[in-house]
Amino acid sequence: MAETRESTANFTAEERAAMQERAAEVRTARKRGKAAGDPEAELLAKIAELPDEDRAMAERIHAIVREVAPGLTPRTWYGMPAYGATKAVLFFQPASKFKARYATLGFNDDARLDDGGMWPTAYALTRVGEAEEAAIRELVRRAAGEG
């Protein structure tokens, strides 16, 4: 048991909070079952809680994902906006989540971004302007296997 205490002592308060949020998400999913509940409403509520800069980016990314890849289910993942069928394919990590200097748009291994033997799976975001929006659209389209 001491090993568990030592390993959890190595996590920041923000990391522990994210793990607690994930555990709560799993418990909620088990209680309501796959058919019940509204994961998108939960995601939108999380976005609404974000500080202004993070919220603006998260809202824009949400709109892009819903437009470009409507087959990806919106939900929360470790308390962050995420999208995917059974697993999170992509997620938005607000800068405020871990007190970082930038937000992150990340992709998990189900994302279809493969490009040779090496490719990025996370992108730093400080804003979502026209150029960033175009890049995000393309990444989401590829990640979802849309074309």
Structure description:
It is built from 5 helices and 5 strands. The chain is an alpha+beta fold and 147 residues long. The chain has a domain at 57-146. Residues 1-38 are annotated as: Disordered. This is DUF1801 domain-containing protein. It comes from Cellulomonas hominis.
* Structural class by SSE content: alpha+beta
Query: Stretches where pLDDT falls below 50 for ≥5 residues?
Result: 1-6
Side by side, the strands of the main sheet go 1-2-3-4-5
**Number of helix segments?**
5
Terminal residue distance: 49 Å
Largest sheet: 5 strands, antiparallel
Q: Taking Cα atoms only, what radius of gyration do you get, to the nearest Å?
A: 16 Å
Shape by Cα distribution: globular
Q: In percent terms, what proportion of residues is strand? A: 5-15%
Find the count of extended strands (DSSP E, 2+ residues). Answer: 5
Please estimate the helix content: 40-55%
Summarize model confidence as the mean pLDDT.
89
H/E element sequence: HHHHEEEEEH
Quick description:
The chain is α+β, with helices and mostly antiparallel strands.
List keywords for this structure.
147 residues, alpha+beta, five-stranded antiparallel β-sheet, 48% helix
Q: How does the SSE layout of this entry go?
A:
Elements: H1 2-9, H2 13-32, H3 39-49, H4 52-68, E1 74-77, E2 80-83, E3 90-93, E4 103-107, E5 122-125, H5 130-143
Antiparallel strand pairs: 1-2, 2-3, 3-4, 4-5
Helix pairs in contact: 3-4, 4-5
